[in-house]
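Chain particulars:
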Amino acid sequence: MNAICTPDYTASPTYVNSNYESDAETLNKLNSLYCGRDELASKVLSLGGNAAELLTARLDAELDQLLLESSADESKVITVPPTVSNEDLEQILQVMHQRYADNAKLAQAWEAEIYSNIHSYDFEAMGIEIKPVIDFIVLQFEANKPTTHQQIKKHLTEKTGVGYYVEPDHNGLEQQSNTFTIRVHNVKSKKGLNAVIKPLEHYGVKQTDIKVARIEASLDFYNAKSKGLLTALYKSLAYVKDSTNQRVYKKQGEFQTIPTSPIHLLEKLEDGYCIGVNPKDSPVYYRSYYKTTDRRLNLNKSEYRVRTEVNCAVSELGVDNGLGNLPEIIQCAFNHLKFTKQSNKATEQDKKLYMESVGTFGKRNDAHYSNSRHKRTLDELLIKHAELNSLLSKCVSNLKRNFK
């Protein structure tokens, strides 16, 4: 947004009008708006019904106005004597333009910090819809008749009309050449999964013998007004202990260090970069990005969304990996997509650091006992984000019903 405005002026004397708030006041009001603390927001939230739409409209209008009004000092009127030459007046205006340009950058940085802070979000009030998705599962099975992975793939395509990724499982538990894996994308229900499994009976495969080797669980956030939500999720996600390899990238294998400020990370995200944590094919690894395509096809703009996902080896989940246990496997995978927030122990300095920087704040540590003798794995300044996690749990429960 261009926050530079051309002031009006007259000749006797010349007044260059500039209404704005101080930096501190502006930042405080922005924080209030997006934490839901301002008076109108509180009233709207109590209305129910169209509260989300009303609040979102108010927030949009307020932010746009505040970005235009931000400035660097407290004076509201600049007086220019009529004796000032055109050259001097032009210089004054250029200085003002530069000041507004600098303040526009500050406003953009404030906006990035706010949208990149999980504490700024009331997902339901802001109209942000969350949908859990099984992006894909990798099934492992043993064929009871001689065949190859090419033959299985061809048979599946003929029966389902869909091409599947089938390969020999050289790491299979049996270590036999007749063990294979198949990757099934966009798994929405048990019925849809059965449509893939049924043709495997041609090779003597029993459904009760099929194992789930890996699962990728995703959370899609629709109607988020800023890609800064990706940063907020990145900062607050409760990663597994010893998570490493935090990076941004566009292509697999690319590694760029994650920027340490919200505005610079947002610039990367706007340019199409993904956020990754842990190397690909680790027992558990994470990815966050703005989804605009699906299987290389462009989505309608109404389907664009913020996505954060976790890919898990089922052997790491500590549960039975049989296909019949899929609902529990789904639950365990989504348990790796839990979020944190700062506790009431956080000082103003702690909150400022969290607001202005980027990092894996929510990463789990070795289990330890708190001062109250409760066993915990989070940093002392963090707690579970009960409101968001509760909302996610309801969504995941609804998804699991499709697989029972």
The first strand starts at residue 14 and ends at 17. Residues 86-115 form the longest helix (30 residues). The domain at 132-214 is CATH 3.30.70 (Alpha-Beta Plaits).
